[in-house]
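Workshop exercise sheet. Pairs work together: one partner reads the sequence aloud, the other fills in the structure field after running the prediction. Swap roles for the next sheet.
Pair: D.N. / O.F.
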Amino acid sequence: MIRVYVAGRLDGGAIYYIQNLHRMLIWGAELRRNGFSILVPGLDLLLGLSAGNWEYEDYFDNSQPWLEVADVLFLVPGWEGSSGTLKELEMARKEGIPVFGKLEELIKWRTEVEEKGKRAAGFRVEGE
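Structure field:
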C-alpha cells in the first residue's frame, strides 16, 4: 500500500490551526477511502496536548522521519505560504519523493506504478 504524507498549512492562530487541520483530515480520509495509507502530521496536536510543553520544533521533528519514509507527499489545497509545508516540500524533492496536489494525479501515478511492478514481476498488464 502506498504511504502518503498529507502536508498542509498549520500555522496561524488557534482557529486557523483547527480549520486547517480539519481540511487536512478531510483530505486524509479521502485518500484513505481511495486505498492509500496516510499520515496526517497535524494529529501530533494530540501528543502535544498530552505532553503539555511541546514547541513547534517538537511537532516538526516528530513528523519529518515519517516524511522520509513516505512514498508520496500530498499537498492539501491552501498549503501555499506555509513555511512548514515549504520545508516538507523541499525535503521531499531532495529525497526524490513524488509530490501531488490533486487526487486524480496521485491515483493515475499509483496505477502506473502498479503496472510497472506487474511488468517487472513478469505479469501481463491489461492492454498489452
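Discussion prompt: The chain is about 55% helix and 10% strand. What would you look at next?
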